[in-house]
Design a protein that fits this description.
This protein is α+β, with helices and mostly antiparallel strands. It is 23% helix and 15% strand. The model has no long low-confidence stretch (mean pLDDT 76).
Amino acid sequence: MKSYRETQSSPSKHLPSIMMVGLLHVLVGYALVTGLARKVVEVIKAPIETKIIEEVKKVIPDTPPPPPPKLAAPPPPFIPPPEINIQVPVQQQAQTITTVTTERPPPGPAPRVAPPAPPAPTGPVVRKNVRPGGDAVRPVFPRQAIKDGIQGGRVVVHLMVRPDGTVSEVRVISASPPRVFDREVTRALSQWRFAPEPVGFIGEVEIDFKLTD
């Protein structure tokens, strides 16, 4: 059986440790040759930059404070005007003396009564049954009246005659039957001619219609 000393003095027991130490020496030598150690030292020696971050303060714009509100001046106190008593002079009424007489005045002349005035004309004077000068256009019995079985009728019109004798307007005053012969009467009498006069006039014409075989 081997003793403890013999076991510790055996070279195979210390071989891994020797290899580790040799490998460490090789790495250190490589680092010195390549300058890696110098870079590590420079990195370590490099100053550490420190920055102080200041707190950002809010900038408050310098705006002037708003002007104070204008206060309206209070109205002046109401002072009533002084009362002034004005004495109105009293006017004395003149006394009226009335005398009463019992004597009657002499009778005067009888009042004259004026004759009644003639009634004022209410409108222009209408000439009755006027007749034109020369050949007058006669109205024709309407065909529609024949178809409707109308045998006759009567129409009264007013003619507005100008100073030169021409007819300016034909107004139907009455018609029996109504609106059957109006158009034909207006057409025919608008062509009538009268003798010229200084002033125009209104003439009344009565037209009778009768259907003959």
